Amino acid sequence: DVKVTQSSRYLVKRTGEKVFLECVQDMDHENMFWYRQDPGLGLRLIYFSYDVKMKEKGDIPEGYSVSREKKERFSLILESASTNQTSMYLCASSRSVDRATYEQYFGPGTRLTVT
Amino acid sequence: EDQVTQSPEALRLQEGESSSLNCSYTVSGLRGLFWYRQDPGKGPEFLFTLYSAGEEKEKERLKATLTKKESFLHITAPKPEDSATYLCAVQARGGTSYGKLTFGQGTILTVHP
After folding, report:
1. pLDDT digits (tens, 9 = 90+) for B13-53
2. Going by DSSP bridges, is the β-strand pair B107-112/B10-14 parallel, antiparallel, or unpaired?
3. Are B27 and B2 in contact (CB under 8 A)?
4. What tens digit of pLDDT does each residue of A39-82 get?
5. What is the DSSP-derived secondary structure letter of residue B94?
6. Which residues contact A96 (CB under 8 A, 6 or more apart)?
7. Quick one: pLDDT at residue A95?
8. Inter-chain CB pairs, A–B, below 8 Å
9. Can you tell me the distance from the alpha carbon of B109 to that of B26, in angstroms, rounded to the nearest whole number?
10. Which of B6, B91, B101 to mutate to test the interface with A (most CBs of A within 10 A)?
């Protein structure tokens, strides 16, 4: 079974703090994704990566950055947390074969509260 | 721009009362349509992938179908443990959308005993 793990289930940070959310997958997947999920807005893609050190902006990248130094690990960074970044953050991974991509598998989520 | 619309927003069923959830989509070339189940406070759980019109997939009480414009998730004789939010997502072919999913808002299903 695919396993995607996230570093924390719940996190409380103060405004202006630098926040690191980490995600690890154990299936050697090429692609990794970060989403946020908010009531009424659904799942929105922040960033994704299709290879080590490669990244692409999603729909809402402002205020976020990412890092992928190893294939299995994808980090989301909030450079200076703000209250409007309070949300559920979800990491996902998927495999690619000859540019065909497949279903994404999600981690359990991190509920981040910024006060 | 790729769009996914799910209906209804919420659905309440009695145990054993079969029904369907709808996912309408517009996409510039469909690579795949995905169904997920999400329980409160948890990450989405993958259910099905459909690739072409006419395709069907089944898993226990769930059956997903696909046409050129929409997908249905049929729930036969549901049980209370089927209560969850069901999400639909589409993946477009190639270009800058490589690997990216566009999600619908989800349908909240509640099954009463």
Report:
1. 999 999 999 999 998 889 899 999 999 999 999 999 999 99
2. parallel
3. yes
4. 888 899 999 998 898 999 999 999 999 999 999 999 999 999 99
5. S
6. A30, A31, A50, A102, B99
7. 87
8. 58
9. 24
10. B101
